[in-house]
């Protein structure tokens, strides 16, 4: 009788737990952004028009305003556990400033079209004017102390620059109604930061926007410094759409330099500094040549670089291509990408928590969070909606959606590399699964990386793919899309110090050394294939070393990840399948073993994940044994790998400092 009662209790508790989980999932689904009355004629792929972008902007703003009940309430949101700030009360005023300045990106463009906008029973225009004035009210908890003469740049400069962007694009509602004494006090406070030092990165633009806005309003500003920062920003340009953000190439080139240059030129530069504006606009046009290729066929961005929590800001430059009115620009493709990215996040059930976007990629994900971020930082994504400033009849809004090169140039059985000589970036597109991939700079020592992100997984992967978001490293050697080596402290240490060598005959060459032991080093060669990557790498370490190499990882979705092992032509292929994608890894030369690794808490899409690692735990380099050849393949779930897909190569012949490999009947020579 007790056993029956216990069984019933267990069954009932399981039913309750299942019901609770189901209700939670239903609640998440209900909270995602809904596209009402999709326009499949103008936008056959996403259904989204300019009106839906307005709806999306309001959707985000309404979440933020769920914390605002009076004009005195601040944009301070629940802190996400982890390394984000504030860690103490000293940073709370800056936290509130971030929430104010960044939600203003969204509010400003909506107010531009609807000056009387009311959200959560609060007049939005009144709220921001009131809060901006409180920044110079010494009795307010949000008062910002002006910069002292000898102090350096800090986060206040960034947020003041952001506010000035909104003031510049909507002065009629946000600036003109303010009392003159408040205007003068704001000018004094903001210029104390703008007319001062900066960081040798995209931060220079924050000084530029502060100085430019107040010059336009008739205040005396340091024009010599303004010109100096303009020249230094232009000097950061490396061609083909990419600015160097000292030292990285990442999304800051686009949601920072390129967007800021276009915005500054349109609202200020064309009038006051036409020569500099012309240069920024010329650089801006270049991004059309390759940046769209960084997004997947269905408009998904790659999880790559720092500040991934800004997400949709990655598309913020695209609408401003509409200012060019250039027949060579495929506006329908740019909007298809842009709306696809909006849907990628706004319709993901984990995107919002407490009505506010999480710090992470889809949901909360601590490995991708930086210490300079607070919960309100995420609204930097609001820059995506600055495109709403373009009129309704702009070609960005009126062109019919299309899939650009994916439908006009790319063939499914091919792979396409777009290498950019100056930045050394290689963008690869895989038509078979519609995915995009990037290989780019990383060479930062962890011991010098006090903020802990440039040497981390945000940058140190061998490649980053739109279909397979990066997984963090585990303490037991679990690794995805990188090498790890057992260092002198008996810890698994990833590669992070890369030196680009060349891109030749479809092969991307790099050298790499281990940070803590320069006697451990590799020659690397990536060969993208139609359905994956062939790696031909050479271990040139001068000591015995244990090492592992990981494929991309798969998150567990609706069902358990399955594992399969197949022997083809003397090689063992290990295949994992999560119901959406399959990954296959085939060691060809050099490796001792292959295994499927289960991980917890390392993947941005799911708490549980699996990856495939190969290992050589007693590597002693010789001329004959130091080459490691590895196939890292993928396929959509439900389509069985054919044997010829798993082994698409013939002979592999190492010879001194070169390796000959036969791929689909063609012989490639890898020469490091």
Automatic annotation (TrEMBL):
InterPro entries: DUF2264_N, UCP014753. The keyword Signal applies. Residues 1-18 form the signal peptide. The keyword Transport does not apply. Residues 49-402 form the DUF2264 domain. PANTHER family: LINALOOL DEHYDRATASE_ISOMERASE DOMAIN-CONTAINING PROTEIN. This is DUF2264 domain-containing protein.
């Amino acid at each position: 009788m007790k056993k029956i009662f216990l069984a019933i209790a267990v069954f009932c508790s399981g039913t309750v737990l299942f019901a609770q989980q189901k209700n939670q999932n239903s609640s998440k689904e209900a909270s995602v952004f809904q596209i009402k009355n999709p326009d499949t004629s103008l936008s056959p792929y996403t259904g989204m028009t300019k009106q839906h972008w307005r709806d999306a902007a309001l959707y985000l703003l309404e979440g933020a305003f769920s914390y605002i009940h009076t004009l005195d309430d601040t944009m301070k949101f629940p802190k996400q556990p982890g390394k984000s700030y504030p860690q103490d009360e000293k940073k709370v005023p800056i936290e509130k400033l971030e929430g104010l300045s960044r939600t203003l990106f969204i509010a400003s463009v909506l107010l531009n079209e609807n000056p009387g906008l009311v959200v959560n029973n609060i007049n939005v225009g009144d709220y921001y004017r009131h809060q901006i004035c409180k920044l110079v009210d010494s009795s307010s908890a949000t008062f910002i102390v002006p910069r002292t003469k000898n102090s350096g740049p800090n986060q206040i400069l960034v947020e003041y620059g952001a506010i000035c962007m909104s003031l510049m694009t909507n002065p009629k509602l946000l600036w003109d109604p303010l009392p003159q004494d408040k205007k003068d006090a704001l000018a004094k406070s903001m210029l104390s930061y703008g007319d001062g030092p900066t960081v040798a990165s995209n931060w220079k633009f924050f000084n530029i926007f502060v100085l430019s806005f107040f010059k336009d309003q008739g205040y005396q500003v340091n024009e010599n410094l303004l010109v100096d920062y303009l020249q230094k920003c232009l000097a950061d340009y490396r061609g083909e759409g990419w600015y160097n953000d000292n030292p990285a190439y990442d999304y800051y080139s686009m949601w920072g330099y390129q967007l800021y240059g276009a915005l500054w030129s349109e609202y200020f530069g064309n009038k006051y500094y036409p020569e500099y504006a012309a240069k920024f606009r010329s650089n801006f046009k270049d991004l059309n040549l390759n940046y769209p290729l960084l997004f997947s066929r269905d408009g998904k961005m790659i999880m790559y670089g720092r500040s991934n929590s800004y997400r949709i800001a990655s598309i913020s430059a695209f609408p401003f291509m509409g200012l060019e009115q250039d027949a060579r620009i495929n506006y329908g493709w740019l909007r298809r990408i842009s709306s696809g990215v909006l849907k990628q996040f706004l319709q993901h059930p984990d995107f919002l928590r407490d009505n506010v976007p999480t710090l992470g990629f889809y949901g909360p994900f601590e490995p991708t969070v930086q210490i300079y971020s607070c919960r309100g930082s995420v609204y930097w994504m609001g820059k995506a909606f600055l495109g709403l400033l373009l009129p309704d009849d702009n070609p960005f809004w009126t062109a019919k959606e299309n899939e650009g090169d994916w439908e006009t140039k790319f063939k499914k059985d091919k792979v396409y590399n777009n290498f950019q000589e100056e930045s050394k970036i290689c963008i690869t597109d895989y038509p078979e699964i519609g995915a995009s991939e990037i290989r780019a700079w990383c060479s930062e020592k962890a011991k010098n990386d006090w903020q802990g992100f440039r040497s981390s997984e945000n940058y140190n992967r061998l490649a980053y793919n739109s279909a397979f978001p990066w997984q963090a490293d585990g303490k037991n050697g679990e690794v995805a899309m990188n090498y790890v080596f057992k260092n002198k402290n008996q810890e698994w240490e990833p590669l992070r110090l890369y030196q680009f060598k060349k891109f030749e005959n479809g092969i991307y060459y790099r050298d790499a050394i281990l940070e803590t032991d320069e006697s451990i080093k590799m020659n690397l060669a990536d060969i993208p294939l139609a359905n994956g990557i062939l790696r031909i790498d050479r271990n040139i370490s001068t000591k015995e070393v244990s090492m592992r190499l990981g494929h991309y990882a798969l998150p567990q979705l609706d069902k358990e990840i399955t594992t399969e092992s197949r022997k083809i032509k003397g090689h063992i292929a290990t295949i994992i399948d999560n119901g959406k994608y399959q990954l296959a890894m085939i060691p060809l030369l050099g490796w001792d073993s292959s295994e499927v690794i289960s991980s917890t808490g390392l993947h941005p899409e799911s708490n549980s994940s699996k990856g495939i690692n190969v290992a050589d735990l007693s590597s002693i380099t010789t001329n004959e044994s130091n080459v490691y050849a590895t196939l890292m393949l993928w396929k959509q779930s439900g389509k069985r790998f054919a044997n010829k897909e798993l082994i698409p190569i013939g002979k592999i012949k190492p010879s001194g400092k070169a390796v000959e490999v036969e791929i689909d009947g063609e012989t490639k020579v890898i020469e490091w």
